[in-house]
Amino acid sequence: ARTVSRRETQGLPPPALRKVMAADASKLPSHAGLEAGDAGYAIYRITKITPGEYKAGAKGSLEDLAAIDRQTGTEQLEAYVASLRARAKVSVNNANLEKKQ
Question: Which residue in 16, 7, 68 sits closest to 46, CA to CA?
Answer without folding.
Answer: 16
